[in-house]
Amino acid sequence: AERGRRGWRRMAESLPEHDRILQEIESTDTACVGPTLSAGRGGRGFMEKLDACIRNHDREIEKMCNFHHQGFVDAITELLKVRADAEKLKVQVTDTNRRLQDAGKEVIAQTEEIIRCRVQQRNITTVVEKLQLCLPVLEMYSKLKEQMSVKRYYSALKTMEQLENLYLPRVSQYRFCQIMIENLPKLREEIKEISMSDLKDFLESIRKHSDRIGETAMKQVSQPNRMIRPCRNRILESKNEITLKRTFEDEDEHEEEVLTAQDLVDFSPVYRCLHIYSVLGDGEIFENYYRKQRRKQARLVLQPQSSMHETVEGYRRYFSQIVGFFVVEDHILHVTQGLVTRTYTDELWNMALSKIIAVLRTHSSYCNDPDLVLELKNLIVVFADTLQGYGFPVNRLFDLLFEIRDQYNETLLKKWSGLFRDIFEADNYSPIPVANEEEYRIVISKFPFQDSELDKQSFPKKLPMSQSVPQIYMQVKEFIYASLKFSESLHRSSTEIDDMLRKSTNLLLTRTLSSCLQNLIKKPHIGLTELVQIIINTTHLEQACKYLEDFISNITNISQLTVHTARLYGLSTFKDARHAAEGEIYTKLNQKIDEFIQIADYDWTMSESDGRASGYLMDLINFLRSTFQVFTHLPGKVAQTACMSACQHLSMSLMQMLLDSELKQISMGAIQQFNLDVIQCELFASSEPVPGFQGDTLQLAFIDLRQLLDLFMVWDWSTYLADYGQATSKYLRVNPSTALTLLEKMKDSSKKNNIFAQFRKNDRDKQKLIETVVKQLRSLVNGMSQHA
Question: Of 499, 492, 605, 611, nearest to 562 (Cα)?
Fold first, then answer.
């Protein structure tokens, strides 16, 4: 074909243009005629050539038809022959068809019935197959609804997961499945809301009842017949909803069943909520929410009531709430995975511990009752032991107890200060009388008194100390017991407890008892007899200090020979009190002497003496004599010092009476009367009112008065002036200024006596002598001042 086309092309090149186009029309495909006709459309010659070509082909077609016409005629003839047979055949076929149709009507009906049944059967089969796919879905969904109705939310979530992953994909084309798929997220949200609501109810219940949980846990620790540490294997398990399963009733201990903290609370809401949120992929959200809410509750629990310090119940409720809170957290820590971590609980506990210590410091400072402080200490110990049993560090709480111990000691000191004051107020400050052996043993059972000389005496007899001594001694022992109570359960060694007891006892002796004794001694109503008895009492209390040390050693089982054992400072306490009492004795003696001196009523212008000592002075001496008889029970030096002090004060008071600036004149008769009084004083001093003075030591207290009065009585001015300044002078103790003052008073008295001045030559000579002596004394006084 390709070679033919190339031949036509070579021929077309040699033919005229119109012939070439006609050849292309005849030789090309029908689809290419259009472009060829368009190329030859431009001339008339072409159309003529085309018509000629057409006529040629028509003649060829006619020749061909004429050639085949006979065959066509023969065929028509044959066809006409079989026409009649065809008609017969048609009739037969129609008849056969009619008969066949009549015969097949029943078959057709049965066939249609069969077809319909087959369709129904196929539809039923299809329905059964589809129902078999849908029924598990419906059953699971029904199960889901049932689980929701009975609040089995965790199982419901598992059912939802199976529906979504296994069942619903098989029948996802059905509309009810789409409805289910749309409802599942809503059910999940409903489950989350319900579980969160249960959790909130749980948290609220725990907040309200944490004090009872803590109370039960602390009760377990405080019971001596139980283990100190709580058993974690039974912590807080229950199968019911959140409630306290039982209530605490104030029944008899033997009839009341002691509930454990593990029997009180149902934690299933926490487990459910945790599992639900974990299944839903929101476990972290739940953890954050739970921890946030518990932190808020922790802050509420740690906030005390303003009146907590007033009663022990306030402290007990505060501690119970905190213990209950951390018992719950410890349980959550050990039964859940990740909801609460050890780091979280440690952080929460450290925060709480700082707050607890600050609260206890503040509120315990308001406690003035040692019994309340002691109960607070016991609560803190139980509180610390309970939480330590759950693994929380409590060393800082025991450090706090040492601070509270100091406060406890202060409250004890205040309480015992009142007890000591009451004892001193009730004391009669007289020796204890004992009528028989039984009374004597009762006294020595309270106070370690030993006196071999007194034991030899027969009953009735008197013990030297007053009733306050055994009472004070017993109260000191009671104080030691009270101080020991605080030291118990502090997990400290016997040495430390011994040291604490000795330090607190030292404070009692050196501060409280010493202060009470000092105040007692200074009280106005305490007289000399009472002061003497106080000195005797302090002496015996001082001797009893060694028995107190033995008492402490027996309690703590620590020998006093231990290097680090502290000693009691009672010796210095009682010595100081005794010295203060001695000083008060001296002061009161002097005051009493001043009272007698104040009632002295001398007639300083009398011409001659009465011939006997003044009444006030005799009363004073009798008082001193009776007073010093009471001093026989005092230590010798104390009585001697008191007697010497009294005589010296009396001598000075009499001297001041003579030299008083308001006294302007003194007669010789008054000097003589005054001399009689001084003689009585000297006689009293020489009578040895207090034994132990050597020679005339006590009389020397009046030596200044004696030499001054002798000088004026003898009128020995020449000797005085001649021997002045010499160690052997007869009037060595007479000061020129003193003599001058007294002499001037006598001079003024002589001037006013006109009779002596006018009619008696001796008196005039004496007046001149006085003036001369006055001048000489003034020169001596001036010389002394210049020398000074």
Answer: 499
